[in-house]
UniProtKB/TrEMBL annotation:
PANTHER family: CHITIN BIOSYNTHESIS PROTEIN CHS5
InterPro entries, sorted: BRCT_dom (IPR001357), BRCT_dom_sf (IPR036420), Chs5_N (IPR031673), CHS_Export/Cell_Fusion_Reg (IPR052827), Fn3_2 (IPR031669), FN3_sf (IPR036116), Ig-like_fold (IPR013783)
Organism: Cladophialophora immunda
Biased composition (Low complexity): 268-278
Annotated BRCT domain residues: 163-251
Name under which the protein is recorded: BRCT domain-containing protein
Length: 398
């Protein structure tokens, strides 16, 4: 197609061309001959380049396919939450490695009972977490929320329940330095209670059992705040039939702090006395001394006490020391009790006098007599002085 145009104006970079119907077209002046000036007529031929169009369309389609294969076929994987171990107060949760595809990770959070429990640190490396401080025999629900640049993905909801006190299957023990025989007995006890053994300290290790505090596993257990106990702790759990405290079973703990009991659901083995119920020790009594029946304290025959309230404890005369008294016959018990009552009636007024107003005059009269005696003798001080002077005179005479 050939088009004739008239040059209207030529600038440094753009030339203005006019069509026959007086329309303006801006055309690059660098494409025009250098001799063109205003008013010149130029012929421009225009045609379609089909080969170039096909190449351009093919390049565009290849780009679209590359974008689809890179960003459209692979998407981030939804996390799958699982239970690894459960105890009375803790839970260990785990999941598979996070698949982000071509997206960028924003955060990975754990939710407990519908509320956010916290973000998972280093989510591309961390594949498990431990929840501690939970209630005993209580049900909880957990799920993960993965946030990426390509969207938000929520994992499955995991409903788990902590163990009761008598459920020992959640105990996971890592043995440390132990004698060979003690290690064998420990493995047998762990097998009997349904617990597990880990060769190395892991996130689901609940207790580290050893008799010597040294070694790499012992150091790692201290770093992870895992209780380090003696093998007697496992035996105590088996004996009690429930999980017991570890305070008395630490390596440096006093054995007297251990509360040893027995499992009521298991029969006590032969030769081992049951420690659940111990008979109370008998009350200390005087040897071979018959018990006297309690009688009311005798009152004075000539006056009654006017003091209100209960009388004080009865003071009995001290019996003479006797050894190996013959047993009291059953038939003569009544006669001896009567003789003892008679002795109490005779000695009662002299041994214990009830406090009351009736004895006040006698006490005053005794005090007056004592004062008169002191006046006649010149008082206790004068007597002592006189005696002292007499002693001095005797010394001089000698």
């Amino acid at each position: 197609m050939l088009v004739s145009l008239t040059v209207g104006k030529v600038d440094a970079g753009v030339a203005v061309l006019l069509t026959q119907d007086k329309r303006l077209i801006e055309f690059p002046s660098i494409l025009l001959p250098s001799t063109i000036t205003s008013g010149s007529i130029v012929d421009i031929e225009v045609k379609q380049n089909h080969e170039a169009e096909r190449k351009s369309q093919a390049a565009f389609a290849a780009l679209q396919r590359q974008i689809l294969n890179t960003y459209g076929l692979h998407v981030p994987a939804t996390p799958l939450l699982r239970l690894r171990n459960a105890t009375q107060t803790s839970l260990v949760l785990e999941w598979d490695p996070i698949q982000l595809a071509t997206t960028t990770l924003r955060s990975l959070a754990l939710y407990r009972n519908g509320s956010k429990a916290g973000n998972i640190p280093r989510p591309l490396e961390t594949l498990s977490t431990k929840m501690s401080g939970l209630a005993i025999d209580t049900e909880y629900s957990f799920y993960l929320v993965l946030k990426t640049s390509g969207g938000i993905y929520t994992s499955n909801t995991l409903a788990v329940k902590t163990h009761a006190m008598n459920n020992l299957t959640g105990i996971t023990v890592t043995p440390g330095i132990l004698p060979p025989q003690l290690r064998e007995s420990l493995e047998a006890a762990i097998s009997r209670i349904g617990a597990r053994i880990n060769d190395t300290v892991k996130i689901d290790t609940t207790h580290f059992v050893c008799t010597e505090g040294r070694g790499r596993d012992w150091e790692r257990a201290n770093e992870m705040n895992i209780p380090v106990v003696r093998p007697e702790w496992v035996e105590g759990c088996e004996r009690e039939g429930k999980i017991i405290g570890v305070r008395g079973y630490y390596l440096d703990a006093d054995p007297k702090q251990r509360q040893i009991g027995s499992n009521p659901s298991l029969s006590a083995p032969a030769g081992r006395p049951s420690t659940t119920t111990a008979p109370a020790p008998p009350a200390p009594q005087q040897a071979n001394v018959p018990q006297r029946p309690k009688e009311q304290s005798p009152q004075s025959p000539d006056r009654d006490s006017t003091v209100s309230g209960e009388p004080g404890p009865e003071v009995l005369p001290t019996p003479p020391p006797q050894k190996d008294l013959p047993p009291t016959p059953a038939e003569g018990g009544e006669d001896e009790s009567e003789d003892e009552e008679a002795e109490e009636e005779e000695e009662g007024p002299t041994a214990v006098e009830p406090k009351g107003k009736g004895r006040a005059p006698d006490v005053e009269s005794d005090q007056e007599e004592d004062e008169d005696d002191e006046e006649e003798s010149g008082g206790p001080q004068q007597l002592s002085q006189a005696e002292g002077k007499g002693a001095e005179m005797e010394d001089v005479a000698l």
